[in-house]
Amino acid sequence: MKAKIIVMPKKTVLDPQGKTVKHALESMNFTGIKDVRVGKFMEIELEGGTKAELQKKIDEACHKLLSNPVIEEYTFEIQ
Amino acid sequence: MKAKIIVMPKKTVLDPQGKTVKHALESMNFTGIKDVRVGKFMEIELEGGTKAELQKKIDEACHKLLSNPVIEEYTFEIQ
Amino acid sequence: MQPLTPEVIAKHGLTTEEYGRIKQILGREPNTTELGIFSVMWSEHCSYKNSRPELKKFPREAPFILVKAGEENAGIVDIGDGWAIAFKIESHNHPSAVEPFQGAATGVGGIIRDIFTMGARPILNLNTLRFGPIDRPDCGRGIPAPTGRDRNVAPTDQSAQNRRLFAGVVAGIAHYGNCIGIPTVGGEVYFAECYTGNPLVNALSLGILRHDQIKRGKAVGVGNPVIYVGSATGRDGLAGAAFASRELTEESHEDRPAVQVGDPFMEKLLLEACLEVMRKNGLVVGIQDMGAAGLTCSTCETASRGGTGIEIDLEKVPKRETGMTPYEIMLSESQERMLLIAQKGREREVEEIFEKWDLHGVTIGRVTGDGIMRVKVGDKVAAEIPARALTDDAPVYHREARPVAPGRALPQEPKDPEKALIELLGSPTIASKNWVYRQYDHMVQDRTIVAPGSDAAVIRIQEAGKFIAFTTDCNSTYCRLDPFEGGKIAVAEAARNLVCSGARPLAVTDCLNFGNPMKPEVFWQFRRCVEGISEACLIFGTPVTGGNVSFYNESPAGAIDPTPVIGMLGLIDDPKHITTQWFKDTGDMIILLGEIGGEPLKVDLAHAKRIHDACLDYIRQGIIKSAHDCSEGGLGVALAECCMSHGDAMIGATVELPGSAAALFGETQSRIIVTCAPERAVKIAGRVLGRTGGAELKIKTPRGELCWDIARLRDVWWNSIARLMER
Amino acid sequence: MKFGILQFPGSNCDQDAYHVLTDVLGQRTRYVWHKDTTLGDVDCVVIPGGFSYGDYLRTGAIARFSPAMKVVAEHAKAGGLVIGICNGFQILCEAHLLPGALIRNRNLKFICDWVKLRVESTNSPFTNACRPGQTLRIPIAHGEGCYFAEPAVLEQLKREDRVLLRYVDNPNGSLDDIAGICNETRNVFGLMPHPERASEKILGSEDGRLIFESVLHAAAHA
Ligand SMILES: Nc1ncnc2c1ncn2[C@@H]1O[C@H](COP(=O)(O)OP(=O)(O)O)[C@@H](O)[C@H]1O
Ligand SMILES: [Mg+2]
Prior knowledge:
The complex is a heterotetramer, with 2 copies of chain A, 1 copy of chain C and 1 copy of chain D. Chain A contains 2 helices and 3 strands; from the N terminus they run βαβαβ. Chain A is an alpha+beta fold. In chain A, strands 2-1-3 form a 3-stranded antiparallel β-sheet. Chain C is α+β, with helices and mostly antiparallel strands. In chain C, the strands form 5 sheets. Chain C has a 7-stranded mixed β-sheet. Chain C has a 7-stranded mixed β-sheet with strand order 23-25-22-26-24-27-28. In chain C, strand 14 (448-450) and strand 15 form a beta hairpin. In chain C, helix 7 packs parallel to helix 8 (158-180), helix 8 packs parallel to helix 10 and helix 18 runs parallel beside helix 20. Chain D has helices at 14-24, 67-77, 87-94, 151-159, 209-220; strands at residues 2-7, 28-33, 44-47, 81-85, 101-103, 111-119, 135-142, 146-148, 163-167, 178-182, 188-191. In chain D, 23% of the residues lie in helices and 26% in strands. Chain D is built from 5 helices and 11 strands, in the order E-H-E-E-H-E-H-E-E-E-E-H-E-E-E-H. In chain D, strand 10 and strand 11 form a beta hairpin. At the A-B interface, strand 1, helix 1, strand 2 and helix 2 of A face strand 1, helix 1, strand 2 and helix 2 of B. Bound molecules: adenosine-5'-diphosphate and magnesium ion (MG).
């Protein structure tokens, strides 16, 4: 199975990277951009375990290791 | 509308970050991990334009700026 | 208007008496925004209300001081030929405990702003770090994790937690300093139990400028525009007062981040743009960065210093989020923002320079003549307070101090001195810090003559044809055992490190990290350390030009050991004087300046000064080839470092020591190991220890000969931290 | 010979390069602002180190689109000399003026240290003052200096003698120990180490000067 995890800076936290990318796109004449946010995408290939078990394990991993709860939030999917 | 973009290192490019995450997960007693890859996730909020137009624009942005075809590949979705 | 309940007042950290004083100043009840403004300006961080009477003991005067301690954002000293140096150290301990990477990064960003605010171009950074032990599988004894956030580790494994903090802090400092292009040229790292749960992160920055480029944080010239530039204001760093803002806002239901995210790229633009604006003839009247309590602090302080008032309109303030209240805007700690007071009518010139750097300067208000800090939202007044009341009328407290009997550090007789030296060299506090400084760009700007790895960093100022040395020092164990002696020793060690590098000590900045000052024992430690530092600074002729106080460094296990970090600047008169700690040639004489044995926890300052002067004198006469100060681990560690700290050219030594092995590791103060060509040894007043040469360090003692392979010593010393961190 | 040093928002080794070229080598040198649309009389462009646009997104990714880079590409196409140091190398790769890419160091950490480099080819305007096989001592300071290219590209680089510098002890995981390469026409050079930090004895090495002196040598014999 595969876990796909998205980790994004929290909405209220400054995202310097997103801000800079927005500027760059605009200076390339890309108009109509309201906001850009840049985060991480992780793909974990897994072996064994039921979906429910993995769900729990991945959630724990996201919380403890893969994201920084102080400034980031995560979502994931297991397929 | 919103564009959600995933940029991942190509399979042929080494991904030390993925390897490090794999190790860290294993040292947390997370077993059965076959592979971890770490990439980027970008969310762009857009105003104006039809979906088809945006599709074209985002594809161009991905190709030109948001990813480097030498080392990365991208996929995106517009919602 | 909503009445302010006693709980709201208490949660703002204000006492009933302080609240009474606020009402008296205003002649009415404050509103919540005003309460927030008073609470930050009267906090320890901004007002130094608990420490000010003690800090007055520091010697602060000298003919070469251009901007005195406490006058401005950083002190400035004259280094001759019209050139000057601004430097300062600041703590970012608590944010780093919560989020090590961003906490440390924004600490670096903050101190850099303090320097360029003065008109100086920052040319070097240092960092002083303290963590709990990183080398024990389980050292926690059940102390909970600092944040309850246990990334990557099981909660009981404190050592792993400390490693995570250490790694995060170093990466954060690297991130900010490297990106902005200021070399991080030195610092220190200690590991001790008392910092578990309360790491210390002190960042220091130093900049250069011409005398006529000094800028002040003064709002003068009624009618002059007040210009805001830099990052937009968000709800950053409001966690401390989050309760209040939560009650106050309906629109903001989101979690407020306690931690600010730094943007070193933005700061680089600000740095370049501000220096360019400041250097344009008469354009900038006053300037101040927005640090803690951002807008509040910068507006009322500039007005207070200028003897004026200031009026701003919050509608004009660039905001990152919608629905922000005046309270939130005034108390936000968003990073990378500056406030300028420009000359009226020349706004366009300011804007043009900012635009060149892709920044937007926004005029948010003007200087007034009524002495009032007036905050408006459009036409509505949100706060109206006499500016002086916020800065000069802050309460001052004389806290109770209760002495603690001094402890003693007795040198122990190691059973196996050969093993003991290897263990000492491998212990994280003594081991090489290359794992740290290799992550810092310590060479950018083409100034670094002596990189991290010798007693002090040596930096050239090519634009002025000058050379300076810088070091930070503090042994907090000494300060716990005897705060007065510990304070003296910190200054003496800093001076010694400079002297060993060929520099003449000039001036000091200090970062006083202590526990809760309401505890009389802690306050006594604080007072005694300050007194010790003061006495030593007097003797060495190095006035204190500024610094920072960080109280409330407490973990569940209690207060940290007193940690008054000394940052000291030295001047090198001639590049020929630049000296490093490692042995240079085979066959040289090894000579000790100072005593072999002696009371470790005492420093005789007059004696120390004589040793320093002698050492500098030998360096100036070109007699000695290397000089290394003896600190932690005594002669044994110092000799080993002389042999192998320069990886490309290691040279062994054979020395003879009288007395027991304790003499080998005892930490007697005021000692320097120097080398010279044999025929010049007669010119040196010291004790000949032996000669350099070979691939071993051999020490003959009355109990027999000890011998170490220096490659082995090097391996243990050089790789110890990397092995712990990357296991 | 006139040098032009590019300045992007976030460049931070621009002044170092300027210092070495003017004060140490006595060359006529000026800055080229990233918004400039002409190089004027510049013969050799130096793209300095630093963190252009904060290194956000990818190193060099945003700088590559600046107006000045457009004229640098034209300059290169016309045979003009271009040196990209560190971030400059990253920008040249992003701009496709050099093949491959620079990715994160294998240990995921920024590394600032002295390294030894081997001169693999002296057949270039950037290394002609070196001896073949000469070892140079020059510092590195980067977080993303691991060179990567597809196997076919690497083959071509080797076949065409375009790897000019290799690390003696690979510090960052670079493919085939590559520290510096040039383009097909040998007038565009990218390297991760900082020769401008090793051009004065007092800074610990003068080996970096050989790179700049090669350029002067090439110009004198052009
Ligand atoms: N956090 C740090 N950042 C940069 N350099 C450091 C750091 N910690 C230690 N160093 C460097 O390592 C060397 C040894 O430090 P230290 O053991 O404190 O020396 P000393 O005892 O002579 O003061 C010094 O050059 C110092 O600047
Ligand atoms: Mg020390």
